[in-house]
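lol ok so funny story. i was supposed to be doing the assay writeup but got distracted and ended up predicting the structure for this chain instead. priorities right. anyway since i did it might as well share w the group, maybe its usefull for someone
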Amino acid sequence: MKKYIPSLILGVVALIIVASLFVFLNSRPEKNVGPSENGDEKILAMELSSDGSSYTVTGLGSLEGGDIVIPAEYKGVPIKEIGSRAFWGKSEVTSVVIPDTVEAIREAAFRGISAREIILPDSVKIIEGYAFTDCQNLEKAVLPKNVDLLGGHLFENCAKLTEVNIPENITEIPEYMFTRCTLLESVSLPDGIETVGEQAFHVCNSLRNIELPGSVSKICKDAFWGARLEKIVLPEGLKEIGGNAFMGNPLSEANLPDGLEKIGNRAFQATDLESVHIPASVTEIGSAAFCSSYGFTDVGGIKDLTVAEDNPVYYSANNCIILKDTGELIFAPNPESVPDDGSVKIIGAEVYSEVDADRVVIPEGVTLLKKHAIVGFERIGEIILPASLEKIESGAISATDSKGNSVKSIIFSGGHDQWAAMEREEDWLSETDKVLIIDVTG
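and the output, tada:
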């Protein structure tokens, strides 16, 4: 009998361990509610928080798509989040009803679903990036009134989106928020918006008008590139316009307000602006900021460009913009407009970027051609360099036009000794094998 006692003890111990394990497993928070607990109930996949106080929806679970109604709670526990990528790519989801218990919608949660309308309850405070990207059927979106955070790329590639509200307490239109929303025709921005983010309305080619509130101080690069704005009223508090910000818009009117400090590269390139006044406050203007065309298609040209007399950095002459302290030419509407009185000392980047001419004469007095001074042109037959020229930076002149045709000749007006003494950085002329003649005539 004694020999069975150890076996009996071991059996009891094993039974206790199994029972304890069973109790432990059943007392833990459910980390993932499966597609079905009883074999026939259709439920979403959900994950319980570590403290057991809320659920996050993580996927379709056993649901097959169609019209999805997210419950306010599961087993008495509230559902507070839609998890990252929960419904990403589920094009079979045609509509979603979100309860007012949900506080956060995580990254790419509904990316690519087929819903035509999204209405978010006011309980939602956080909407992370890409939440509704690629929703090709989405026509209307109603954002919560008191949302604290909007992520970038929110409605990118929602090609049918025509109606969306911007909550009152938002201070920034996030980057890429409406990129390629090609049917979006108008947007009203509330007071309090300070920044229009990078590519926020990029290629919104149905966008005809937008009202910028007085609170906007910065328009980031590419913000409205490829939109179809015909007129824009820039607010008095605006400080910065980023590169390519309005590139390609058929703008016929755009006031530059007093207080504006910076205009980025190609900010107004390829617009229909005919008149521009640079206020005294502007201290930085990027290259090709006001070029009349891009893609080598003429869409207009500035006929009246002026700079405020008390501007400390720039002045205007013949509709050109010139730096006061160095004589650097940073914008000229055409080659004929460049002053030839010796006042221009430097040709800046992309000044001759849109030229279509048999001959371009760089005026006497110019001592420096900066990088990319004569590039991206539609056609140049002959380039005449002045005898005053002392330095040509790397990449200053392109030997070919936009169609790959070569400049026929480059002629230096000075003597051979001057040409030999000139500082010409490596690769100052690209594709030199395509230039038929480089001549020194002096």
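The first helix runs from residue 5 to 27. Residues 317-442 form one domain.
back to the writeup now i swear
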